[in-house]
Amino acid sequence: MSEVEQVVDAFTVNENEEDTEQYLTFVLGEEEYGVEILRVQEMKAWDNVTNIPNTPHYLCGVLNHRGTIVPIVDLRRRFDMPVMPYTATTVVIVLNVEGVTNRIVGIVVDGVSDTHDVLPDDIRSVPDFGSQIDTQYISGLVPIGDKMMMILNIDYLLSVEAIG
Predict the structure, then answer these.
(1) 124 Cβ partners below 8 Å, 6+ apart?
(2) Which residues pair with 71 in a beta bridge?
(3) Which residues contact 162 (CB under 8 A, 6 or more apart)?
(4) Using CA atoms, how far apart are residues 110 and 128, in angstroms rounded to an integer?
């Protein structure tokens, strides 16, 4: 069983923790990010995509996902991180993005990490870095052990305006 399949099999709703929100966590470099588990439609190993000309550098292309054409965004490139070759742990997370129109978008990440149940009171606000730094794509920070997980606002980060 692949690492991606093991993480998918590990998804269980914790019925004892009704007040918690569940997040899928993934890594980019040394940092851990989270997205609401209810927004995750599927995870799949990296596969070639169809390139679309004249698109932003972080838009890898599109793929056919069960009859739907899905844009694929490389989050390393979207965050202006150094580009790394895709490996066996590289994963595409297919997400439901809400906005003017609801749509499906895939994100390429270095690897899937875990799932975490988070109490809403444990989510910290993003510090104010001034007007020159856009942090609207982060909806909050959560301490996980000795690290911080950044919860992504995928509706902002992957909006038509943001990736178009």
Answers:
(1) 140, 141, 142, 143
(2) 62
(3) 137, 156
(4) 28
Q: Domain range holding 81? A: 3-163
Of 104, 87, 107, 86, the C-alpha closest to 96 is 104
CATH number where 53 lies? 2.40.50.180
Q: Which run of H or E residues covers position 5?
A: helix 3-9
* Per-residue three-class SS string for 54-97: CCCCCEEEEEEECCEEEEEEEHHHHCCCCCCCCCCCCEEEEEEE
**Number of domains within the chain:** 1
Per-residue model confidence as pLDDT tens digits over 86-124? 999 999 999 999 987 889 999 999 999 889 899 888 888
Q: Which residues pair with 74 in a beta bridge?
A: 108
CA distance 119 to 116: 10
pTM for this model (two decimals): 0.83
